[in-house]
């Protein structure tokens, strides 16, 4: 293999020659220091942030951002330029680093062994520790974003949500419509009673057969009984609840197992759109591991 590489260098020296003064090999880089709110240098493509949190959820990323991260070369994998890294940053005890991948710009193309000096950034994952889960909860922290879902996941999620909310609407209508009809029946009964009282059931003038026969006795229980006959049987409720549960479960099918959030003692809401920023009293060193990618 080395003989073939040497022959290639003799035939085409540009293959092995350094392409420019601002090109380096990652195997010669021992440490990288990256800063928040700074961009990398760029030549072929657009610059990227030096520190970029990619998950598992943007809500977790928005809770805290490290100011500085230092990555150390830990040797290579199968190829000399396939460098493995350990990256360390100071984080509050509620957080810890997950995967930390170093992303660099290939000097001439995406697979170039030479990379542009200053073009490396880190894509890292911010995870919650047990203390962080107790403070912020973990509702939907591990839920994949909609934009990152596949078409199949989006289909099943949308279908499950449609079935779930469809059952809720059906239950609401089946409760509301008979109730409205019952109220309308009561109002109509009151009106008919008022009309009967106004006309009266007079005995007629002294001749025989004067006046009509009195109305039949009326019991409010009969009206209530007829309305009560229209109520649902237990089978409806069990079927509606089962269908709603099935639809809701179908929507969660593609997202894997999720944990339910514990009750939080405080009133802090870590969701997006919250105007409150959490405060942290101390930080400790946290280390993540990752490999190299070129762009």
TrEMBL record:
Residue ranges with Gly residues bias: 199-210
Membrane protein topology class: Single-pass type I membrane protein
Pfam families in the record: SARAF
Region Disordered, residue ranges: 199-227, 244-295
Span of the signal peptide: 1-16
Any one GO biological process: calcium ion transport
GO cellular-component term (any): endoplasmic reticulum membrane
Low complexity composition bias: residue spans: 271-295
Listed transmembrane segments: 162-189
Keywords on record: Calcium, Calcium transport, Endoplasmic reticulum, Ion transport, Membrane, Signal, Transmembrane, Transmembrane helix, Transport
Location in or out of the cell: Endoplasmic reticulum membrane
Xref: PANTHER family: STORE-OPERATED CALCIUM ENTRY-ASSOCIATED REGULATORY FACTOR
Family: Belongs to the SARAF family.
Full protein name: Store-operated calcium entry-associated regulatory factor
Organism this protein belongs to: Penicillium salamii
């Amino acid at each position: 293999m080395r003989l073939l590489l040497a022959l290639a260098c003799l035939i085409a020296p540009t293959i092995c020659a350094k392409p420019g003064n601002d090109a380096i090999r990652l195997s010669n880089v021992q440490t990288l220091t990256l800063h928040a709110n700074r961009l990398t240098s760029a030549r072929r493509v657009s610059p990227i942030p030096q520190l970029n949190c990619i998950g598992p959820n943007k809500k977790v990323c928005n809770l805290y951002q490290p100011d500085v991260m230092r990555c150390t070369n830990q040797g290579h994998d199968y190829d000399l330029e396939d460098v493995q890294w350990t990256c360390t940053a100071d984080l509050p005890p509620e957080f810890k680093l997950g995967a930390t991948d170093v992303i660099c710009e290939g000097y001439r193309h995406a697979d170039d062994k030479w990379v542009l000096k200053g073009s490396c950034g880190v894509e890292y994952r911010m995870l919650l520790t047990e203390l962080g889960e107790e403070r912020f909860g973990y509702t939907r922290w591990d839920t994949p974003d909609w934009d990152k879902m596949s078409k199949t996941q989006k289909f099943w999620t949308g279908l499950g949500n449609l079935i779930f909310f469809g059952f809720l609407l059906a239950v609401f209508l089946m409760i509301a419509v008979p109730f409205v009809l019952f109220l309308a029946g009561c109002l109509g009964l009151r009106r008919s009673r008022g009309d009967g009282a106004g006309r009266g059931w007079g005995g007629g003038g002294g001749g025989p057969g004067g006046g009509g026969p009195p109305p039949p006795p009326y019991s409010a229980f009969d009206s209530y009984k007829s309305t009560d006959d229209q109520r649902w049987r237990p089978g409806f409720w069990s079927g509606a609840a089962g269908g709603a549960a099935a639809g809701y479960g179908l929507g969660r099918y593609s997202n894997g197992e999720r944990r339910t959030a514990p009750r939080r003692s405080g009133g802090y809401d870590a969701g997006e759109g919250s105007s409150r920023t959490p405060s942290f009293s101390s930080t400790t060193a946290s280390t993540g591991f990752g490999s190299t990618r070129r762009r």
